[in-house]
Design a protein that fits this description.
Layout (H helix, E strand, L loop, with lengths): L7 E5 L3 H12 L3 E5 L3 H20 L5 H9 L1 E4 L8 E6 L5 H11 L3 E9 L6 H6 L7 E6 L8 E6 L5 H13 L3 E6 L6 H17 L5 H12 L5 H8 L1 H15 L8 H8 L16
Parallel strand pairs: 1-2, 1-4, 2-3, 4-5, 5-6, 7-8
Antiparallel strand pairs: 6-7
The protein binds nicotinamide-adenine-dinucleotide.
């Protein structure tokens, strides 16, 4: 295993989030390794990043030289061992506990002595994942938002065992890639989804009860609360299956009725109307 410089990091999982995380680190001067078990995911991540860099140059938001050097710092790898050892590894794979535990067990061997292993999970307990690690004090949640290159926030989630030093280093990394890092403690849904998902769920209850049409619910929340998107359109963007999973986590782990998933949300997921990705959710997409 080859050790690399301090300006090296790796991301595991090259899906929607992983590719964005790789891009922002590469733009900030890091050699960013991108590992995925699915070759097609690596391929489509490479194409998606290329498209964004191309557009940034076209729109004068980036020089052609910067785009070229960013490209040269992105290293897609199809074997985890090819990431060598890095001071920071961010796991951004499928949101399933057993998948993450297995990946993290392997990934921790690729973290430089004293380095940090982070997860981009939206809803799995950081404390629980950390407990399965050799160095739980150096494990943390680094929760980016979609689309990563545009969204400013990184919610830095401290597990019960996470050290202050790990938190400080993670905040520094987030700042280095141009993000605003806001720390919080590990708790179901952290801050972002604990507040967002009940709002989305309530909007779906309002729809189910015939309080208003979907367009009206979204318009009221947009104009009245100054939200850039209405809750139903946002749910369609996130994916209704993802929303249901997260609400289920809040309901199960916080144990209060106010987090009960709306039956209409369950129905939509059962019908395969998952939002934008299936071209139909609360709204239709061409
Ligand atoms: P995604 O389905 O787009 O990508 C997941 C990737 O992980 C896939 O390419 C898959 O091939 C890969 N993968 C699965 N098992 C693997 C393994 N064993 N080894 C290597 N790669 C593996 O998912 P996503 O939307 O990018 O979400 C990734 C993580 O980020 C999840 O934990 C999710 O909760 C979190 N998250 C998602 C969003 C969002 O809006 N999509 C926002 C914040 C956080």
């Amino acid at each position: 295993m080859h050790a690399q410089s301090d300006k090296t990091m790796a991301v595991i999982g090259a899906g929607t989030m992983g590719r964005g995380i790789v891009q922002v680190f590469a733009q900030a001067g890091y050699d960013a390794y991108m590992f995925d078990m699915a070759p097609e995911a690596l391929d489509s991540a490479g194409k998606a990043i290329e498209k964004l860099l191309h557009r940034a140059v076209e729109k004068d938001r980036m020089t052609a030289e910067d785009a070229e050097s960013t490209r040269s710092r992105i290293h897609p790898v199809s074997k985890l061992c090819d990431v060598g050892t890095c001071p920071l590894i961010v796991e951004a794979a499928t949101e399933r506990l057993e998948v993450k535990l297995e990946i993290l067990q392997h990934a921790q061997k690729h973290v430089t002595e004293g380095g940090v292993l982070a997860t981009n999970t939206s809803s799995i307990s950081i404390t629980q994942l950390a407990a399965a690690m050799d160095h739980p004090d150096r494990f943390i949640g680094m929760h980016f938002f979609n689309p990563v290159p545009l969204m400013k926030l990184v919610e830095v989630v401290r597990g019960l065992q996470t050290s202050d030093e790990t938190t400080e280093r993670t905040i520094a990394w987030a700042k280095e890639v141009g993000k605003t890092a806001v720390p919080c403690n590990d708790s179901p849904g952290f801050v972002s989804n604990r507040v967002l998902m009940p709002m989305i769920n309530e909007a779906i209850f309002a729809l189910q009860e015939g309080v208003a049409e979907p367009e009206a619910i979204d318009e009221i929340m947009k104009l009245g609360m100054n939200h850039p998107m209405g809750p139903l359109a946002l749910a369609d963007l996130i994916g209704l299956d993802v929303c249901l999973d997260i609400i289920n986590v809040l309901f199960r782990d916080l144990g209060e009725d106010r987090y009960r998933p709306c039956p209409l949300l369950r129905k939509m997921v059962m019908a395969g109307r998952l939002g934008r990705k299936t071209k139909q959710g609360f709204f239709r997409y061409e």
